[in-house]
Amino acid sequence: RAKKDTRGTFSFFEVGMDARAQARRKIETDLRAALQHEVLRPYYQPLVRLADGRITGSEALVRWPHPERGMISPAEFIPVAEDTGLINAIGAQILRSACMDAARWPDDVRVAVNLSPLQFRVGNLLSVVMDALKQSGLPPRRLELEITETLLLEKSSQVLATLHALRALGVRISMDDFGTGYSSLSYLRSFPFDKIKIDQSFVRGLCDNRESQAIVRSIISLGNGLGVTITAEGVESEAELSWLRAEGCQEAQGFLFSQARPNAEITGLLDLQQSGASAGAEFAMGSA
Ligand code: C2E
Ligand code: MG
Ligand code: MG
Ligand code: MG
């Protein structure tokens, strides 16, 4: 409801705030129903090895087919899910689905799953991951968990202990959206990541931006020094791809290769790759 201010006029600011609060409440209600009916599901975006163009994994990205609004983007509902604590149940559901799907993919293909910092705070993350692996039969080495820099900001010993315990299971840990958080490099010393994903904001328009080039080049060299795989996110053009390959980036992901797709499509793509029928044609790497 719009409130009257002291001079009797309506404030657009308050009307705006109110509408936004209502929209969030509606998302929360609908999200609870979606969770209960298990309509949220992962789509998968291929991770491509630049040396030979093979799909070596896929990232699970949650999709919400909303009855009235069509597909709703995670950018819109993940923040609501985090504010309301629903992210824990959503995260567990997506993790389980992703492990179940990936268990049927070829044995050398991994699945990457995003984790919210809140999932580390509840205290049962380790058993959630162990259950998903056990129920699906997915070998731990085929699961990658993506975390963001904000998780490590607090320098919590509980978070570090959980990360080490996950790694002891054989699960791989990736640093997502690298370079956008507070990038205190000291955490790279306290935890041995398996992979660093360069945020897409540095990759977009890379070819015309000397600053981005300098940043990406130094992240690649940091990765080489640490013995960590470097993945470039958000690759959209051939020019970006060849620049990244020339600079020694090992892996890439982006609309140039594919958007996130339903499991049936990804499975088809992986089967084709496995049979050798496409001879790598799907993501042919030029003169590589
Ligand atoms: P993210 O983990 O960094 O995922 C990459 C995002 O970039 C995805 O957006 C993907 O569709 C998009 N993307 C990939 N390639 C390109 C490209 O070439 N160009 C452009 N413009 N975009 C590209 P999406 O699916 O909308 O997800 C957004 C974010 O939502 C994710 O960022 C992740 O932080 C979060 N998210 C998605 N699924 C989950 C989930 O299951 N759990 C949690 N906690 N977060 C999730
Ligand atoms: Mg991610
Ligand atoms: Mg990312
Ligand atoms: Mg992101």
TrEMBL record:
Span of domain EAL: 24-274
Superkingdom as given in the UniProt entry: Bacteria
Protein name: Diguanylate cyclase (GGDEF)/phosphodiesterase (EAL) with PAS domains
Biological source species: Rhodopseudomonas palustris (strain ATCC BAA-98 / CGA009)
Range within the parent protein: 455 to 742 of 745
